[in-house]
Design a protein that fits this description.
4 iron, 4 sulfur cluster binding, 23 helices, Dimethylsulfoxide Reductase, domain 2, 694 residues, 6-stranded mixed barrel, N-terminal domain of TfIIb, alpha/beta, metal ion binding, binds iron/sulfur cluster, Rossmann fold, single chain
Length: 694
């Protein structure tokens, strides 16, 4: 129960849950946070919020928080509380010792999409300037890395094209593999407002999400495809648009590479991509598919919004490119009301990718092989940068199992719980000589750690988050860090203990360095953010006011690039032993693995994940509402209660993954996106049967 006092002061800051990036007024009584009030001048939310941002901040005071650093010589020993000085010294000595023995590439870092831009920038800088390698990766690896690849290949940069307000000019909205009412509620409200004004909606999702039919809103088409067949459905829509002559030739001739378009048009025109052939593959009726394609192409401004139901597949990058093709084909890019928009899950997925977290890219999505780009950072940092890309998270773990990778600094991510193939992650961590976990709570990964560095919450630090519309929002310190240091200070302590000589005294200085080295941020500084509230990158000489909409006069890469997107079935197949397909998602009141939302003093939060199963599939298995069932895949098994619903089609089951007991990643496969290694969380062949419970 939260005791409410009378607020005596307030601080404007940004929600640390989802990629909408709502602004809040944190109201305090002295140093006690009393309530979070949605800020009416927040550009992303305009006074709106969801239940998480408004109420789920109690975890900052939760008794589970670790406030003192801890170390241990080996993971079979108990933790020992030590001073910050001893913990940082221990970590630095271990990492240096590993590098001396096993080489400079034997250690690496993982950045967090929950942390600020400034913190993320420093962690990748730690790898590049102090460890002297490019072994830096981010938790975006397991969510939106295909967005980075797919939009980079087609448009030239990894970012949504629109601001959220743009949806108020949309005539046809397409939602693919996303559930905005649960995942991005404040954006969903704005979309619903536009739908109530008469805009049309197409939903492409295996499950009947709320937007398909809710109060005053009904989708024109719900294409309930078989999980894993996104590419086939989107390509079939392109088939209809091309073969019926509904494409925007003027746009394509002026803005895209015409030769590549011709090759693409020939590819999609093939009869194997017709709605009739696609129906057999995807389960989507040909008539509905054809009608949806015609509506998107001819219904006015068409805007596509997508989520992890697009990216977390073995063809995640291919689907992102297929979506980009569709937008270019119809000229739905570069003005109000149109575009391609990834709905980012975590608060700072966009920012963590912008800040150079990936092992092949320096800040601003510039390849480490580019000597001119390296020279900018070499001049700023006073060191030489390795021109070879580093290791992705799965490669770090593989190398650890092989004895080549020995030390990891992991900030704000629980890879043991979040990443696929739990056994392999555990084996990789167990093989390392120094695992440093920097987090709020003793998470599952910490079971394999030698150093635990207590993290600070978003309420306890200054910085910026970048939301899904590229909007850089200020995060302001509401209270002193309970652990003693903000996260950026802890990274600096570690870097300096390894000889770095960094002297940042405020995150604004880190942002100044980002602006000096990263063209899209050239005009961004804290004084400007104070004055204007927020700004959308690119913000530089070419766009001093920022860029609400991208690719207005031309694509970042020059000509838009059509890419042939051949559908390749996932290697995960159903069969007699595992006849159903499992897909996963979120609910409104919980967040990811629930580390924060489960630690709020509020009894309305849901308390367990359930398995949605179609009544027909339940009946043949003797399963009734609320019964315990065993959910088994080729990888493992777990137990859940059943919920009978026709939200899922026969042959498909669905669950959320917010509770550790669900162990969703014991079930999922180790297949991943061909381009980025993003895990295929959304397609797992399973069997369901009655059980006695966990
Ligand atoms: Fe926070 Fe997202 Fe909810 Fe806004 S919509 S309050 S950013 S969780």
């Amino acid at each position: 129960v939260i005791e409410l006092g009378t607020p005596t002061r307030s601080v404007i800051t940004t929600c640390a849950y989802c990629g909408v990036g709502c602004s809040f007024k944190a109201e305090l009584n002295g140093d006690e946070l009393v309530r979070m009030v949605p800020y009416k001048h927040g550009a992303a939310n305009r006074g709106h919020s969801c239940v998480k941002g408004r109420f789920a901040w109690g975890y900052a005071q939760h008794a589970d928080r670790i406030l003192n650093p801890m170390i241990r010589d080996s993971i079979d020993q108990p933790w020992r509380e030590v001073s910050w000085e001893e913990a940082i010294g221990f970590a630095a000595a271990r990492l240096r010792g590993i590098q001396e023995k096993h080489g400079r590439k034997s250690v690496g870092v993982i950045t967090s999409s929950r942390c600020t831009n400034e913190e993320t920038y420093l962690v990748q800088k730690l790898a590049r300037a102090v460890f002297r390698n490019n072994n830096t990766d981010t938790c975006a690896r397991v969510c939106h890395s295909p967005t980075g690849y797919g939009l980079g290949q087609t448009f030239g940069t990894s970012a949504g094209t629109q601001n959220f307000d743009s949806v108020m000019h949309t005539d046809v909205a397409v939602i693919i593999g996303a559930n905005p009412t649960d995942g991005h509620p404040v954006f969903a409200s704005r979309l619903k407002k536009r739908l109530r004004q008469g805009a049309k909606l197409i939903v492409i999702d295996p499950r009947r999400i709320d937007l398909v039919k809710s109060t005053h809103v009904e989708a024109a088409h719900h294409l309930a495809l078989r999980p894993g067949t996104n590419v086939a459905v989107v390509t079939a829509m392109a088939h209809v648009i091309v073969t019926e002559g509904l494409f925007d030739e003027d746009f394509i001739r002026s803005r895209c590479d015409w030769d590549e378009f011709e090759e693409y048009a020939e590819f999609v025109s093939d009869v194997r991509h017709s709605p009739e052939m696609t129906e057999m593959l995807t389960g989507v009726p040909a008539d509905a598919l054809r009608a949806a394609a015609r509506l998107y192409a001819t219904g006015g401004n068409g805007a596509i919004y997508y989520g992890l139901g697009v990216t977390e597949h073995s063809q995640g990058s291919t689907t992102v490119m297929a979506i980009a093709n569709l937008a270019m084909l119809t000229g739905n890019i570069g003005r109000e009301g149109v575009g391609v928009n990834p709905l980012r899950g975590q608060n700072n997925v966009q920012g963590s990718c912008d800040m150079g977290s990936f092992p092949h890219e320096l800040p601003g999505y510039r390849h480490v092989k580019n000597a001119d780009v390296r020279a900018i950072f070499e001049a700023a940092w006073g060191i030489e940068i390795d021109p070879e890309p580093g290791l992705r998270i799965p490669n770090m773990l593989d190398a650890a199992v092989d004895g080549q990778f020995k030390g990891l600094y992991c900030q704000g991510e629980d890879i043991l719980q979040s990443d696929p193939d739990t056994k392999h992650v555990a084996a990789g961590l167990a093989a390392m000589e120094c695992v440093i976990v920097h987090d709020l709570f003793l998470n599952e990964t910490a079971n394999y750690a030698h150093v635990f560095l207590p993290g600070s919450t978003f309420l306890e630090k200054d910085g910026t988050f970048t939301n899904a519309e590229r909007r850089i929002n200020r995060v302001r310190k509401v209270m002193a860090p309970r652990n003693g240091y903000a996260d950026w200070e802890i990274t600096q302590l570690l870097a300096n203990a390894m000889g770095a000589g960094w002297h940042y005294t405020h995150p604004s200085q880190i942002m100044d360095e980002i602006a000096a080295t990263t063209p899209g941020f050239a005009h961004v500084d804290y004084a400007m953010l104070e004055e204007r509230g927020s700004v959308q990158w690119p913000c530089n000489d070419a766009a001093p006011e920022g860029s609400p909409i991208m690719h207005v006069d031309g694509f970042v890469r020059g000509k838009g690039r059509f890419i042939v997107t051949e559908y390749v079935a996932t290697e995960e197949r159903t069969g007699p032993r595992f006849p159903l397909l499992l897909t996963t998602g979120r609910i409104l009141s919980q967040y990811n693995v629930g580390a924060q939302t489960r630690r709020t003093a509020n009894t309305v939060w849901h308390t367990e994940d359930v398995l949605e199963i179609h009544p027909h599939d339940a009946e043949v298995r003797g399963i009734t509402e609320g019964a315990w069932v065993k959910l088994a895949s080729r990888s493992g098994e777990t137990a859940l209660r059943a919920h009978l619903t026709d939200r899922v089609s026969p042959g498909v089951v669905y669950t959320t993954f917010h509770h550790p007991g669900t162990q969703a990643n014991v079930i999922t496969t180790d297949y991943s996106d061909w381009a980025t290694n993003c895990p295929e969380y959304k397609v797992t062949a399973v069997q369901v049967g009655l059980s006695n419970g966990p």
